[in-house]
Amino acid sequence: MKKKTWVISLGGSKIVPDDADLNFLQDFRRIILRYSKDSKFVIVCGGGSVSRKYIDALKKDRKSDYLQSLAGISVTRLNARFVSYLFGIDPEKGIPTDMKEVENLLKKNDFVFCGGLRYAPDQTSDTTAARLASHLNAQFINITNVKGLYSADPKKDKTSEFIEKITWKDFNSMVNKIKFSAGQHFVLDQSSAEEIMKHKTATFIVGNLREFEKVLSNKPFVGTTISG
Q1: Do 185 and 52 form a contact (C-beta atoms < 8 A)?
Q2: Which of 73, 116, 196, 197 could bond 125 through an S-S bridge, CB–CB 3.0 to 4.6 Å?
Q3: Residues contacting residue 116 through CB under 8 Å, at least 6 positions apart
């Protein structure tokens, strides 16, 4: 039986909120190993607050958006290598840097780790994950540090409303009201919103591993579903 493929966007804020969150990552590993009996996983690691610290410093020094983005990509790849080590994997050829390389690795392995792939303007590791999901005909799960999508940033606006379900089109319109910036902090970036709308990729946003596992097992969960 052919295994189902999932692409997971694992936010850097979940990997290294302040210090590396070993308890979270051990639980994440346990879930992935359990479900890898029936599924394959591409785990795209974000840069989180660490990447934003480098990006902010470069921005203050008036360096280009291109250099800011390269700094962010470097952190995502470091995080991917770190998480792969926790799974006992030493990627001999390094972290993959293009979709074909990810695809080839997935043919031989049940899980593959990467960060941002090659530089492209106005994109974060979320776009990498969304494009991989469409390329691999996979379902897409974004694990972030809020329980799902809100009408506004819930940490700044207490009147923001939680959105349980939204269409690809409405989500794309919502995201594109925000101006892109390198290292931006939103559940998904503009390019990923366009990507999942274009390819009609089933997408789920969750804030913790309990809900993540419910999505994998096709059970009702607390989070956001983006679909038709």
Answers
A1: yes
A2: 116
A3: 47, 72, 73, 76, 77, 123, 124, 125, 128
Cα–Cα dist 116/106, whole Å: 17
Classify 44 as helix, strand or coil.
Answer: strand
Q: Is 26 helix (H, G, I), strand (E, B) or coil?
A: helix
The percent of the chain in helix, strand and coil, each rounded to the nearest 5, is: 45, 15, 40
Residue type, 44: V
Q: Which of 47, 107, 109, 113 is nearest to 85 (CA)?
A: 113
Instruction: Write out the DSSP string of 91-159.
Output: -TT-S--SHHHHHHHHHH-SEEEE---S--TT--HHHHHHHHHHHTT-EEEEE-SSSSEESS-TTT-TT
Structural domains in the chain, CATH included, are 4-227 (3.40.1160.10)
Give the predicted TM-score (pTM) of the model.
0.90
Q: Supply the DSSP symbol for 65.
A: H
